[in-house]
Amino acid sequence: MKALQFDFKMPRYISSKLIGRLIPSVYWDSRFSCLQFRNQAEPVLPNEDWVKVKVKFGGICGSDLNLIFLKDSPATSPFVSFPFTIGHEIVGEIAETGSNVTHFNRGDRVVIDPILSCISRGIEQPCPACLEGNFSLCIHKHEGNLSPGLLIGTCRDTGGGWSSCLVAHKSQVFKLPDHVNDLNGVMVEPFSCALHSVLRNPPNHNDTVLVIGGGVIGICVIAAIRALDIPCKIVALVKHPFQAEMAAGYGADDIVYLQKNYVDSLAKALNGQVLKPLFGPEVIQGGADLVFECVGRKQSINDALRFSRSGGKIVLLGLASIMDGIDWTTVWLNELDVKGCFAYSTEMFKGRRVRTFDIAIELMRDGKVDLAPLVTHRFPLEDYRSALDTAFNKKNGAAIKVVFEP
Length: 406
Hints:
Layout: E1 2-6, H1 10-20, E2 35-39, E3 50-59, H2 62-68, E4 84-85, E5 90-97, E6 109-112, H3 128-131, E7 165-169, E8 173-175, H4 182-200, E9 208-212, H5 216-227, E10 233-238, H6 241-249, E11 254-257, H7 262-269, E12 273-275, E13 283-285, E14 288-293, H8 298-306, E15 308-316, H9 329-333, E16 337-340, E17 346-349, E18 352-355, H10 356-365, E19 375-379, H11 384-392, H12 394-397, E20 401-404
Parallel strand pairs: 9-10, 9-14, 10-11, 14-15, 15-16, 19-20
Antiparallel strand pairs: 1-2, 1-4, 3-5, 3-7, 3-20, 5-6, 6-8, 12-13, 17-18
Helix pairs in contact: 4-5, 4-10
């Protein structure tokens, strides 16, 4: 089968880093790249508790672009195994089942929770996080009977969504209802990221919420808040008109563009006051009760900190790495609560403990949200250069979610 793999080699890494500053496409379109398009044998079931899934759509995530552009922190490197097939946003159908798999049959349409936690790794004594259902916080992602990997798409044993098939433990598999289409299916994973952040940090009904970023996760945060029927005020900070249209369509009350005069416009939308320091960026007095930061860049994190009101809360969803130039003054001056949020897990929902993926599928099934319009571009795997160029240069093609169709 064809597969797009990430294969770290130090000469490739150094060459890409040097040349990529001038020619970004070198990261995916040269012999110097760590990204390799290869013929691979199909992955085999690790044991009889696993299934093989034929991929219908495999999404391109911002974290995948971060990986390809070599922006990930080395702190994550103990939790991957090379070479691995990229892709963790997956909808497909069951092609093979192990003998211990009883709730799925060949041909079932499914989505995959890609987190490789204790149960999928065959660890008999689950860690405290996994015992509580907090699989994203598992401490054994480098142990057990699998090679290291945070999730499917970073583990050499499982394959990934940027290929025609992969394997998954039965605990990771979720069946799609007949009337939840495949385009919504490929959005279950990113929507679950947003749901996890909102359910763990729910806005109060009278709150003003700032969502920084008009990409997939930012739009999904807005969609999650509205699908959960939380009647707060939502202000979205976006870069492009097509992002503004999506943000408004999914329930944002105010849209502010990230342009020259955005500080005054955003402060006004948040009922804040702009103050002038002796030098440096403007200081904001007042601001949002709750900020969802969905970009992971120096400017967006600084904006999250300064546009939060005193005593406010900031949830960091954007995939940040090592960066300088963050002004943390407001964290202590305004006693801010800064919270990281990774992936998905098990949530309290309608008085019961439920996997995040189940909630996402239920909301889609019940017509509370339709995320299919976010899938703006589809490419065959062989056309990966165009796909990655489209995902990187979003403005040129008005791209939101770009997916492979192996």
